[in-house]
Amino acid sequence: MRIVIPGGTGQVGTVLNRALSAAGHEVVVLTRRPTAPGEVHWDGRTPGPWTEAIDGSDVVINLAGRSVSCRYTPANLRAMMDSRVLSTRAVGEAIGAAARPPRVWLQMSTATVYAHRFDAPNDEATGAIGGTESDVPGYWSYSVDIARAWEREQEEAAAPHTRKVALRAAMVMSPDRGGVFDVLSWLTRLGLGGPVAGGAQYVSWIHDRDFVRAVEFLIARDDLTGAVNLAAPEPLPQRVFMRDLRRAWRMPAGLPATRWMAELGAFALRSDTELLLKSRRVVPGRLLEAGFGFAYPRWPEAAHDLVRRRRGPGRGLRGAGRAAVS
């Protein structure tokens, strides 16, 4: 197949590009700064020569959008909104104008669309959409607004001959540098991988190989449209999630952090505490119902596999730890 990935140079795009290319597919990445073969320039906003890559393709997987790993200032939140909505609009216009449109358009979304909750899991049928919680910072609702606008842009795109799927993805865990697993592992090996603000908030995640397999599954299943949760079936409280990660790295302990300590740490990392404190208890209802089988449904096994791959062949834990903090 010919697969076009707008915004495919980030962590998730790298994971997909590597796996899909290895499977024999032709992958074209749309990026603002093309540097490698198979990359095509686009600005993420307006039609241009890049639309030729979409015309005649089999699949489009749009991952474009400003990273959420930033301080949630008004300017950054607006950039997160615009980068997602405008790029999705441009992709939709390109698909709608194509003489030979792709048969499926997978559009990145986010599990952050669901409510901050502890009492029950969110699936696509019963999950509560967030934005109205009374016990969370007010600006958290803007993240939900972004997710809703992102999905609405795909829904309203005039692309009648293309099946649309919105990927409500949890955190994709891969051993690549710069991703969320990399950051959490770095903190763990520094002895800082303890519970944050009590650690009762749920962490939803998905192993990178299950993420790729789920994407391939959704491409093949012509009967699936709309929002689909891409998350492992067993989200965990943050304190348990980090305990299992410490065990995978053979770290005996991790210092806990209060809410104000988390604020300081997020500021130092130029990130935001919503990524740590929002309880994302998300389960893959539609994937399981459709018969998808997870290779890594449980976090302890997933964490051990990711640590093994991160260490690489012939590297001991001590050597890996030195490399991580250098």
Brief digest:
The protein has helices spanning 11-22, 51-54, 74-97, 140-156, 180-189, 208-220, 238-249, 259-268, 274-277, 285-289, 299-311, 317-325, and strands at 2-6, 26-31, 39-41, 59-62, 104-108, 163-169, 171-173, 202-203, 205-207, 226-230, 236-237. It is an alpha/beta fold and 326 residues long.
CATH topology, which one? Rossmann fold
SSE string, helix = H, strand = E? EHEEHEHEHEEHEEHEEHHHHHH
Quickly name the level 1 CATH class.
Alpha Beta
Residue runs with pLDDT of under 50 for 5 or more positions:
315-326
Cα Rg: 19 Å
Give an account of the 3D structure.
With 326 residues, the chain is an alpha/beta fold. It has a single domain (2-325), classed as Rossmann fold (3-Layer(aba) Sandwich). Helix content is 41%, strand content 14%. The protein has 12 helices and 11 strands. It has helices at residues 11-22, 51-54, 74-97, 140-156, 180-189, 208-220, 238-249, 259-268, 274-277, 285-289, 299-311, 317-325; strands spanning 2-6, 26-31, 39-41, 59-62, 104-108, 163-169, 171-173, 202-203, 205-207, 226-230, 236-237. The strands form 3 sheets. It has a 7-stranded parallel β-sheet, sandwiched between helices. Strands 7-9 form a two-stranded parallel sheet. The chain has a two-stranded antiparallel sheet with strand order 8-11. Strand 4 (59-62), helix 3 and strand 5 (104-108) form a beta-alpha-beta unit. Helix 5 (180-189) crosses helix 7 and helix 7 (238-249) runs parallel beside helix 11 (299-311). The longest helix is centred in the N-terminal third of the chain and has 24 residues, at 74-97.
